[in-house]
């Protein structure tokens, strides 16, 4: 009989099940999202994220390199993809147009993402993007500038192809359209003090307002 098997000896701790790499990554991302939303970007620490994910901080760094890399994976990259799809970003400028069904799906996805990260985004709205000042900060801003530039070019091309000038500044209009979407989530209590409207009604009204603002003439909002 071994010493640990002797009567009164402490029981051996159960052997931990070997976790797959994907499970480890999923746990780290989930913990990071919770920490970012609970404490904000600057106050969240990789040490606490690793503790909550039940992994070593070394393992966290092995997969994500830094807190900035985690923030990109959890918040910025998904937003970047959705913004690219919503704003119609393409490698080459083409007429600005969003299929109604596709537009509704993209708006639903964007609203869901914003609601999931509402606390963090509200914190960033108050403190400003300087809150995420790290080695990736300028790349994030460049990504946003690229989306705005491409979308504004598409709006302008849409009107030019129809023989008239764009009735609004396309760059400002594109940015304000995204701002309308952001504010519907971040400032919902101010906009809807009596309770938010049904999701489908909100989505459809945002879609119609974006289409009519960006493609006033010759646009079919249906």
Remind me, CATH topology of the largest domain?
Answer: Tetracycline Repressor, domain 2
CATH architecture field of the largest domain = Orthogonal Bundle
- CATH class category name of the largest domain: Mainly Alpha
Supply the number of structural domains: 2
Q: In percent, how much strand structure appears in the residues?
A: under 5%
Total DSSP E strands: 0
Poorly predicted sequence stretches spanning 5 or more consecutive residues? 89-96, 218-222
Sheet/helix structural class: mainly alpha
Secondary-structure element order, N to C: HHHHHHHHHH
Helix content: 55-70%
Form type:
elongated
- Termini separation comes to 79 Å
Count of helical stretches? 10
Biggest beta sheet attributes: none
Radius of gyration: 23 Å
Put the structure in a nutshell.
With 222 residues, the chain is mostly helical. It folds into two domains: 17-64, Homeodomain-like (Arc Repressor Mutant, subunit A, Orthogonal Bundle), CATH 1.10.10.60; 72-214, Tetracycline Repressor, domain 2 (Orthogonal Bundle), CATH 1.10.357.
